[in-house]
Amino acid sequence: MPADQTSRIPETVGYVAGHRQAVQTVDFALALPQRVDLRHLDAWLSQALGITPSSDPPRVFASAGFSPALAAVAWRVLRVAQELLSYARVPVFEPGTLLARGQADTDGRIPVRALVPALDYYPRQAHLTACAWAADTLRGMLSTPLSAEAIARVQTLATEQLLDPVRARVPAGDSIIPILSAAFKRDIPFRHLGGGVFQLGQGSRARRVSRGAVDDDQALAMRIAGNKVLTVNLLGAAGFPVPEQRVSPTEDAAVANAQALGFPAVIKPADRERGEGVSVDIRTPEQAREGWQAAAALSQLILVEQQIPGTCHRLSVIRGKVIHVTRRLPKSVRGDGRHSVAELIALANREEAAKPPWQRLKPFPDDALALATMQAAGFERGQVPAAGVWVPLRPKQTSDWGGVVEHLTAETHPDNLELAERATASLGLANAGVDLISVDIRRPWHENGAAINEINYSPQLSPSADNLSLTERILDRYFDGDGRIPVEVVYGGEPSAAQAALRRQQALCETGLSCFLVTGEGSFAPDGKPVQTTAGSRLAMASALLLRPEVGALVVALDASDLQPTLPFDRITVLHSATPGPAPSALESLAQAIAPTAAM
């Protein structure tokens, strides 16, 4: 990007060379002590924020005028902002670039301007707040000795002043972050369309996702899957194994239905997810009343259900194919053959306490419920379980309590895979998380009394190492390559650029691509007909076409009057020069990542 453009980067989202995400500018002020101890600062970042020192040099614009110390600390400000925002469900995956610095004020605070990732319909204030918080915090770290108390204070401030306020304002949930992170690693461009809905890829090669849902799913199927009564009724009528259940509008009805179905029973809301309000292993009328009350606090539609023996297994179906199977255990500790259950709980909690709060697992409880749960499974607090044996601390896995996930894809019987795929298709879904209760997933469902407990149309993906393989397989099923369509730019004066762009459109159409054209006269379909649009400028028209599923390729004719500091695409497949003379460096840089400049 030319030096004279650094101060003209607008607040609106767009791409510049060297950045894989769209960018915006942020300004923050940074005050440094006379001596900058980067080792001390990096120790702070590692122990307090879980951010490991990077060997990558700071990304600084060539003429920005940063001293080495200022660049090193300001770069760490960008890294802290990026990493903490990602924990706050803001999908930013690169720190940015330092653009410029100003003169220090009377308090020694140096103004810094930087390019940072940005997304449409996300609050701009989030990144401004993150950079300002990081700048103030790093200044304090440079002059403060490391101690447990100081680390705890910084972690509390990070949670209260940054993470919680940002989480309350962003539109996306946790499940979208693993998918977007995997897409970024594969160089698949993504764009926020609003309301937590994202487009991955461009034009005809794009897909749209929201949380764990993908655009193949039918709206009616989602409605059915969102209601456990409708789901079980449909599956049962179609011959699938499901538990018997009864709607229970009152406590008395719940008690009567549990007795009729036979203890043990399950009571749960019909329209909640992630184990919310679910009570399992109900064996008495008193427990049935307590379970009904817990479910009624969250829903007006309460179910009493036959409890199927076994453990819940999640079979993840993507585009009609099971790609991942896990066993979902309740919150547990794993025996090592050396420590007692009580010691294992203490060790697990101590390990988690060493992490920043936002990286910790749910606490490992050592209370009355934990004792009752482990005793029901045949364990005592002072017992030393054998290596590899799980000791449950809660009766079930929930989002509030957490749990343990075991990966069993290779061990699952083919009949169980086929059952999940058929059940998903029967509901009209392409993608789902099928919960199969089975005492042994290695045996076929029709031999051991297994049953489908639920089908989730938008299965939750936590941003953890456990889900890395799953998100990779999701992208394998949806993308062949990086999801991009050919985007060619013809640069030069009119009418030469428009004529050359028309020839390129015709050539690409002859290869079988549905190629659209943008010139100073407007947008044009492959057949030459104008595309009616409200987009005004050429770049706005190009941006709009990248969202349309009928666009298989795009050719854009640009001249000097069209260029802006940011562009609507991060790559140019081929840059053509329609008139003598070099193209602007901004276009050259976007094109060189794909192919050398071509002459026409």
Condensed summary:
Helices cover 34% and strands 20% of the residues.
Attribute tags:
600 residues; alpha+beta; seven-stranded mixed sheet; five-stranded antiparallel sheet; 17 helices; 25 strands; 20% strand; flat
Structural overview:
With 600 residues, the protein is α+β, with helices and mostly antiparallel strands. Among the domains are: 3-170, no CATH class; 245-306, ATP-grasp fold, A domain (Dna Ligase, domain 1, 2-Layer Sandwich); 332-393, no CATH class; 487-599, no CATH class. The chain is built from 17 helices and 25 strands. Residues 1-11 and 593-600 have low confidence and may be disordered.
Major beta sheet summary: 7 strands, mixed
What is the CA-based Rg, rounded?
A: 28 Å
Task: Kindly name the structural category.
Answer: alpha+beta
Strand content: 15-25%
- Global morphology: flat
Q: What share of the residues lie within helices?
A: 25-40%
Helical region count?
A: 17
According to DSSP, the number of beta strands is 25
Query: N- to C-terminal separation?
Result: 24 Å
Q: On the 0-100 scale, what is the average pLDDT? A: 88
Unreliable parts = 1-11, 593-600
Strand adjacency order, main sheet: 22-21-20-23-19-24-25
